[in-house]
Design a protein that fits this description.
Strand order of the largest sheet: 3-2-1-4
Radius of gyration: 14 Å
Distance between the termini: 20 Å
Strand content: 25-35%
Number of helices: 1
Structural class: alpha+beta
Order of helices and strands: EEEHE
Shape: globular
Helix content: 10-25%
Number of strands: 4
Amino acid sequence: MTFTYPAVVREANNEFIGYFPDLDKVTFKGKDINDAIADAQDVLYDYIRVELTEEETPHLPAVSDEADLLISEGEFVRNICVHFRYTEGWDE
């Protein structure tokens, strides 16, 4: 399965920081934009993994349209995509 969520990013104090408006308290950062996006992919993957594999009743929030996001000056939006292989009942 492929999941894509918008992330709001800004540069502050010589690093890039951001958050996912659709996901409560899910943030990321990096020393440059590439590191920040890699961290965003990691935290998004972890969020989805926990929801799908560890929660009794998984709930993934709806994805906001970029045009509906309220962003401040200096912020920009990047869509972060992760691939999650989910096979229920699979044991290694």
